[in-house]
Design goal:
This protein is α+β, with helices and mostly antiparallel strands. It is built from 25 helices and 33 strands. The longest helix is centred in the first third of the chain and has 21 residues.
Length: 739
């Protein structure tokens, strides 16, 4: 019986124990022992650590396991400043990061959540993820932070690599579109507060598609890598470069608003990118166009600035490519105009709006007509003549250049066949047209259809035709020579490897680019020596030479003295319509007399527009008659003393300080204190403009420059206390009175 009772007692005890085990025993705030056991088990399991700081930001507690991880006893680490122990992740490429995250959070006593920090003690470097909250006593006095941490070293680098892949272009290593947008937004936001400027350059490559199509996509990729390297060489550490995709690149240049420096940078980029490339044994020649916009002048936020730079790039491409442009408020209308040109050009051939003009090429000594260069012109029924610099790039973009080139070749040969005098005619051949494998066959069929003798046709090509397979290019040259046509190398000297082309290509003529003629008569100019070298080279190869763009008599004398066999330029004639040419040929007038200025002078552009002129406390309305880099001619003020200083308001925030050097009645010649610079096109502009920050300081909202920001600052610039110093007159009325 005793055994039975014993077994029964043990069963009851077991049942009681199981009942107690099933009962919930929560760890409450008062159960300090069990809470400490819980925290210890958490730390010992390596799931994470704890840390605490005092009100001065010094470490007062760190889990023992965390200290062991760092190879130091916790007692040695206690007392370190949190900002010294924990180094937040900083983008090393972002020199414009405006705050250190941890310092900011601690100073503001904000909560810290999942912040990656680098922990460095001695030679040990680890990455931790920390979190923490500010702690207050019963009287709400701040006593420090209480927080947690965990080691993320193992995953941090892989996460960084993944993040890098998301921000950088895998082909070139440059920043990608996402990163450039993020960086530009960050910079402009920071710079707005500190009243700083930032320039944005947009580039895309000219003729890149031709290289891609001719040599293949791997060659195109290699070309993009080489382009990226060249851009980095030019820009250096001045800014950040990104590839947006395809053949589009973007450059951010902080703290630069001098348009003189920006123009020089744009020109260097164009020159560097335009040098030939060696790719898989083949030679490639491309170019680039550059659009430039500057914040805050052309845009306040990233979206506005990118749009401005895009429009400037659009204008550069529309102006003939291989150029740079600064953004101008008128470019918005220009983009619409280009789209209209695209639409209208498709109908131009069918509507017989295109025609061929001809410019004489004369013997340099006898001035007798020897050849005529055929130049395409487009007379729009509503807008009149549209420049080839505008419609030829458009034709290339929309795939019409082959069609236009074939039409021009046939029309020129047909017209030349019917000339009453046997003369050679030169036709420009685009690189795209020459790339056609059947181009020699096309030339042969055009000659047969028109009946023109092959020896009377000259094909003018540029070195851009050497893109692609050099063997096939040489074969085309040989086929063309067998047909009997002549070959001329156009724009010689503007490339970087023309001599290598002359080694094999059977050219009959070299055309010396007008850039070597312009300004060659000025003292200290090296172009005359270059001309002599080109002529000497051509003579040794039994080639003719043509000096292009000759406009003045001193230039004519120079190119003749240097040995050029032929001359082309306004000094003899501009390009004329075929009807006008026929009239001259029918009477046998083949002799040309040089007509033009005696000497070359720095370019002075004739203009006629109203501008404001500021003198002391008053603004006057005057007429700008001509403009050069160093000065201008104005009219509208009577009897202004020589030496008087003015400020000319040239529009768009451009104010030019000038001194009167000549004065005659109501006309004054003024000299600029700071010379104007090229705007990348045919115009001039000031280096600097009225700053939108200056307008903001006058009480106006911060915005990009309007058409005439001077009006917004008039009250600030002029006190209006003094009387007017000069009498304002209407020059047109004065001229009518004299007549």
């Amino acid at each position: 019986m005793a055994g039975l009772f014993a077994r029964s007692s043990r069963a009851k005890i077991k049942e009681q124990q199981e009942t107690e085990a099933r009962m919930l025993r929560p760890i409450d705030q008062a159960d300090t022992q069990r809470r400490i056991e819980l925290l210890d088990s958490f730390e010992n399991a390596g799931l994470g650590w704890f840390w605490a700081s005092d009100a001065q930001g010094r470490l007062i507690y760190l889990s023992e396991n965390a200290a062991k991880k760092l190879g130091r006893p916790a007692g040695e680490i206690v007392g370190e400043q949190l900002t010294v122990l924990f180094k937040p992740e900083v983008d090393e490429n972002d020199s414009h990061q405006t705050e250190r995250p941890l310092t900011f959070l601690l100073g503001a006593r904000n909560s810290i959540s999942q912040l990656a920090v680098k922990v460095t003690l001695g030679k040990t470097e680890q990455w931790w993820e920390i979190a923490g909250k500010p702690h207050f006593d019963e009287d709400q006095n701040f006593v420090g932070y209480r927080g947690s941490a965990k080691d993320i070293t193992a995953t941090f680098q892989s996460d960084k690599d993944a993040e890098r892949l998301s921000q950088y272009d895998s082909l070139t290593g440059l920043s990608n579109r996402h990163r450039m947008t993020k960086r530009l937004t960050s910079i402009l936001k920071a710079f707005r507060n500190s009243k700083r400027s930032c320039a944005l350059l947009m580039l895309d490559l000219d003729r890149f598609k031709q290289v891609n199509d001719t040599l293949g996509h791997p060659a195109g990729d290699e070309l993009l890598r080489q382009v990226a390297a060249r851009i980095q060489k030019v820009v250096g550490d001045k800014g950040e470069i990104g590839r947006l995709g395809g053949d589009e690149f973007q450059i951010i240049i902080p703290d630069m608003d001098d348009r003189g420096d920006l123009g020089e940078l744009g020109q260097r980029l164009i020159q560097m990118i335009s040098q030939p490339y060696q790719i898989s044994g083949s030679r490639a020649v491309i170019g680039t166009s550059v659009g430039i916009a500057v914040s805050p002048y052309d845009g306040i936020d990233s979206e506005e600035l990118v749009k401005a730079a895009d429009l400037a790039l659009y204008a550069a491409k529309g102006g003939g490519r291989g150029q740079y442009r600064f953004y101008h408020i008128d470019f918005t209308d220009g983009a619409k105009h280009r789209r209209q040109v695209e639409e209208d050009l498709r109908d131009a051939l069918e509507n017989d709006e295109l025609q061929m003009f001809y410019q004489p090429i004369v013997d340099s000594k006898s001035h007798k007509l020897k050849c005529l260069e055929a130049l395409m012109r487009w007379e729009h029924p509503e807008r009149g003549f549209i420049s080839p610099a505008i419609f030829i790039p458009v034709a290339e973009d929309i795939g019409m250049i082959k069609q236009l080139g074939e039409w021009a070749l046939l029309r020129t040969c047909q017209q030349a066949k019917n000339w009453p005098v046997e003369l050679r005619v030169a036709v420009n051949v685009s690189a795209i047209q020459f790339a056609r494998d059947d181009f020699p066959g096309l030339v042969k069929s055009v000659l047969m259809e028109s009946g023109l003798e092959p020896h009377r046709l000259e094909l003018e090509i540029t070195e851009s035709v050497f893109v692609g397979d050099p063997k096939r290019t040489q074969e085309k040259f040989e086929e063309l020579k067998r047909i009997g046509v002549r070959l001329a190398l156009d724009d010689f000297g503007t490339g970087y490897s023309s001599l290598s082309y002359l080694q094999y290509a059977p050219f009959d003529k070299i055309k010396i680019d007008q850039s070597f003629v312009r300004g060659a008569t000025e003292k200290g100019n090296n172009n005359p020596a270059i001309m002599s070298a080109i002529v000497s080279l051509a003579e040794s190869l039994n080639m003719e030479t043509v000096a292009e763009g000759v406009e003045t008599k001193d230039e004519l004398n120079l190119v003749t003295e240097r040995g050029a066999s032929h001359v082309q330029g306004y000094i003899f004639s501009q390009a004329i319509p075929h009807e006008e040419l026929l009239e001259r040929l029918e009477i046998g007038d083949l002799q040309y007399e040089p007509r033009g200025p005696e000497k070359y002078r720095a370019e002075r552009k004739s203009v006629y527009r109203k501008i404001s002129l500021i003198h002391e406390d008053h603004a006057y309305d005057v007429t700008l008659r001509n403009l050069s880099k160093t000065g201008a001619m104005i009219e509208g003020l009577l009897d202004v003393p020589v030496g008087t200083k003015f400020v000319l308001n040239l529009g768009g925030g451009q104010l030019a300080v000038a001194t009167v050097r000549r004065s005659d009645g109501y006309m004054q010649g003024v000299e600029f204190e700071t010379p104007l610079i090229s705007d990348g096109a045919d115009g001039l502009c000031t280096r600097h403009r009225v700053s939108p920050y200056q307008i903001e300081a006058a009480g106006k909202p911060l915005a990009s420059l309007p058409e005439d920001p001077y009006e917004m600052l008039k009250m600030e610039l002029m006190g209006g206390k003094r009387g007017k110093s000069f009498v304002q007159v209407d020059p047109s009325m004065s001229r009518r009175a004299r007549s």
